[in-house]
Write a structure and sequence with these properties.
Strand order of the largest sheet: 5-4-3-6-7-8-9-17-19-18-20
Oligomer: single chain
Radius of gyration: 22 Å
CATH class of the largest domain: Alpha Beta
CATH superfamily of the largest domain: Vaccinia Virus protein VP39
Strand content: 25-35%
Number of domains: 2
Number of helices: 11
CATH topology of the largest domain: Rossmann fold
Length: 420
């Protein structure tokens, strides 16, 4: 690399660190320093320097035969947030699940010469690339392992920290078994189609979240992969995905529901153009058993919303009808939340969903968000906290909102069964 390139990389790196501090992705001097110390561009060969140091964007390094990313170098924003969650300290033993190279290098820098980092991936192309780039960057001490991370890596356990950098639908028992008693697991866990990076620590026989950050990752491959369940509204052009499976016994037949008259309900709840509403999606996912994610081809947009309006993939099914979140502009930079619905009971469902948006606005919009728990699969209902229960392959996941908010909806305990 030429001196000009090195100078440009250093300048871009400082700009990135400043932007990450402003976003809140970097909160500590140690995490700022690791971004300064580890040359990110060495782990994204072929990418432009500006792309390597873009604070918000990931760099895709491998795609499947359909062109979908299956291996990426995560965005600095997400890496910074997860490293802050993990708090890797000098002398620690740490495991990364999902290899890319740069994150393992940063974990190794944080763990210091007395620490030890292992990174595991199921894809030989990924591990070979990680090994090559780590060696070239001076991080030969990182242990790179080719394996299905469903089983963790017992050889170097127990781990003070485990950071998962692929989208996990469940938490395999091996990850918890290999976690030190006072260790911390940071994992992007997918719940009802929504992924949150959870900072998890032990409380007795289960794990409890200390923080949760909205995120997105390529899905885990191998034994930990999950198919979910699709329900078609208009063939493959418009579909609903239920990540944890349909919650009832009989999957609804909604084919053709979009041919009915569309109902609308507007909430009076407004939002600015740059304001996050990720807790709203979580609230709807816990308020409605039939919560799913809506996907539609571009040529179906006019069916879902009018011109200048937007639709979002947060959707709800109740019996024979479906509703989804939308917005309309009310003034420059400000939009109003609404609900569109189709089906025989569209108007009623739209009003019910709109009311939940209003409840979120009144009682949770500016709150801390829910607490997440990961419990053994045989945990009886009476031991679980109030809220929604999602039964997965290995564990029961709970999502619990503050008591006053939960009581306001009367939702109580809901149970979502795995749908494999």
């Amino acid at each position: 690399m030429t001196m000009v390139d090195g100078s440009q990389a250093a300048e871009l790196r400082e700009e990135m660190i400043g932007a990450l501090r402003e976003m809140g992705a970097i909160r500590s001097d140690r995490v700022a320093e690791v971004f300064r110390a580890v040359p990110r561009h060495l782990f994204t060969p072929g990418a432009a320097l500006a792309d390597a140091y873009d604070p918000r964007d990931a760099v895709h390094v491998k795609r499947d035969d359909r062109g979908r990313p299956i291996s990426t170098v995560s965005s600095p924003q997400l890496q910074g947030s997860m490293l802050e969650q993990a708090d890797v300290r000098p002398g620690m033993t740490a495991l990364e699940i999902g290899s890319g190279g740069v994150n393992a290098a940063m974990m190794s820098w944080l763990a210091g010469p007395e620490g030890h980092v292992t990174t595991v991936d199921i894809d030989s192309d990924v591990t070979e690339r990680a090994r090559r780039l780590l060696d070239a960057a001076g991080y030969e001490q990182v242990n790179v392992v080719l394996a299905d991370a469903e089983n963790g890596f017992a050889t170097d356990a127990p781990y003070d920290r485990i950071i998962v950098t692929v989208g996990a639908w469940d938490i395999p028992p091996a990850w918890i078994d290999q976690l030190a008693q006072d260790g911390r697991l940071v994992v992007p866990l997918r719940m009802r189609g929504l992924t949150r990076s959870l900072e998890l620590e032990r409380e007795g026989d289960h794990l409890v979240s200390r923080s949760a950050i909205i995120c997105g990752f390529v899905a885990m491959q191998g034994a930990g992969a999950n198919r979910g369940q699709l329900v078609q509204l208009r063939g493959t052009k418009v579909e609903l995905r239920f990540d944890d499976g349909w919650p009832g016994e009989e999957v609804p037949d909604l084919e053709g529901v979009l041919d009915t008259e569309r109902a609308e309900a507007w909430t009076g709840v407004t939002i600015g153009g740059m304001e996050s509403f990720e807790t709203l999606q979580l609230w709807l996912a816990t308020a409605f058993p039939g919560f799913g994610k809506l996907r539609a081809d571009a040529d179906q947009r006019s069916v879902l919303v009018d011109d200048d309006n937007m639709w979002f993939d947060s959707a709800v099914v109740a019996d024979d009808s479906v509703a989804y979140l939308t917005t309309r502009r009310v003034e420059s930079g400000v939009s109003e939340f609404g609900v569109h619905a189709f089906g025989p009971h569209a108007a009623d469902l739209a009003e019910v969903m709109a009311e939940q948006v209003c409840i979120w606005d009144r009682q949770h919009r500016h709150g801390a968000g829910p607490t997440f728990g990961v419990w053994p699969l045989d945990t009886p209902d009476e031991r679980l906290p109030e809220g929604i229960v999602i039964n997965k392959r290995h564990h029961r996941v709970t999502i619990s909102w503050p008591a006053a908010t939960t009581a306001a909806t009367g939702q109580g305990n809901q149970e979502q069964q795995e749908g494999e």
